[in-house]
Amino acid sequence: MAAKTDLGEQVKQMALASGADIVGIASIDRFEHAPPEMHPRGIFSHTRSLVVMGCRMLRGALKTIEEGNYWQAYNCDSYQYINEILAPHMLRKVILFLEDHGYTSVPMHNPFGFHAGRPVRPGGTKPDGGLSLRVIGCAAGLGEMGRSKLFLTPQFGPRQRMYAVLTDAELPADPLIEPGTVCDNCGTCSRACPAGAIPAERTRELPIGQYVYTHSPLDCEKCCVVHVGWDKRFSPFLTDESTPDNPPGYYEFLQARFRHQSICGARGCVRACMDHLEKTGRIEKQYQTPMIEGKQWVIEDADEHA
Ligand code: SF4
Ligand code: SF4
Q1: At 214, phi and psi to the nearest 5?
Q2: Which of 144, 147, 177, 213 most suits a substitution to test ligand 1, by most atoms within 8 Å of the C-beta?
Q3: CA distance linking residue 216 with residue 199, whole number of Å
Q4: Residue 113 confidence (pLDDT) above 90
Q5: Among 112, 152, 186, 271, which is disulfide-ready with 182 (CB 3.0 to 4.6 Å)?
Q6: Sign of the torsion angle spanned by Cα atoms 277, 280, 283, 288
Q7: How far is the CA of 29 from the centre of ligand 2 (A)?
Q8: CA 196 to ligand 2 center in whole angstroms
């Protein structure tokens, strides 16, 4: 078997060659504070390391929603393509590589269902266990939690989705990122979220290694209504006749074609945050066209347009 340093580097190269934009490694001791139902060993009891990968969402797919012009690229690329095509391929390639070196490894897709059943033995964990892919991103040293509860990296800010491989290989862990390296708690996400779903206070705490990462208690119910397009001020697709039982044909198309319906287009938690991080130089890359130019659009006379 390869030395663990060599194997760690080889696994990372395999992840990058298979579609990951960023990759890091977490050791199992970084989950010592995780509750049993959210612990990697509740899924694969021999887990020693996690290979954690991020795939960026296309900046242009977010920009065309920012311009109010085009929603399909985001719903295709950032949900269906990354989650259902790219990530399963990438996870499988990494796992087959580890298998070929004698290690058993398990993919963590995104999204996945939590805790469907009851323990198969006394004292066992409930299947199917869950993991927070944002927590494992912190544990692999790839980034930190933003106030928004999104995972932020120095490369892309909030603009990636996370995946992981749980493996019995013992691989060298990457150093953690200090909280505050990316998120400066500016509050832009809270102000720009059309649902008012991102509170200011960072009351949720995640102790990992020597650090405690924090984020706000995101109000998922408030978010969901606007996210899927049920606020006329932030959806050009609703009419007076639209109801959940009679949704716009475009919503039905998005669901049928991409199995997702993001209409908010992460206006605050991704687009406004990205804009802040890019304009203040808090992430590594700069781009020709700013994410936000002037004020973000709101359909002020939504009732007249309907
Ligand atoms: S917008 Fe500001 S406060 Fe919100 S997550 Fe981004 S950097 Fe942090
Ligand atoms: S998806 Fe939209 S509504 Fe939900 S938190 Fe992000 S900005 Fe707010």
Answers
A1: -130, 155
A2: 147
A3: 6
A4: no
A5: 152
A6: positive
A7: 33
A8: 8
Q: Residue 25 carries which side chain, given as an amino acid letter?
A: I
Q: CA 204 to CA 26: how far, in whole Å?
A: 21
Instruction: Supply the pLDDT for residue 126.
Output: 84
Element (H, E) at 205: strand 204-208
| Cβ atoms of residues 306 and 237 within 8 Å | no
Q: How far apart are the C-alpha atoms of 261 and 246, rounded to whole Å?
A: 15
What's the 189 CA to ligand 1 centre distance in angstroms? 5
DSSP state of 290: -
How many residues are given for the chain?
A: 306
Beta-carbon count within 10 A of 35 CB: 8
Maximal CA-CA distance, the chain = 69
Strands of 96-179, DSSP E: 105-108, 144-145, 151-152, 160-167
Helix, strand, coil tally for the chain in percent (to 5): 35, 15, 50
For 67, 246, 247, the CA distances from 253, given in Å and listed in that order, are 21, 13, 10
pLDDT at 303: 63
Q: 169 with 194: CB under 8 angstroms? A: no
Euclidean distance between CA atoms 259 and 98, whole angstroms: 31
Which amino acid is it at 94? V
Q: Quick one: what percent of the chain has pLDDT higher than 70?
A: 98
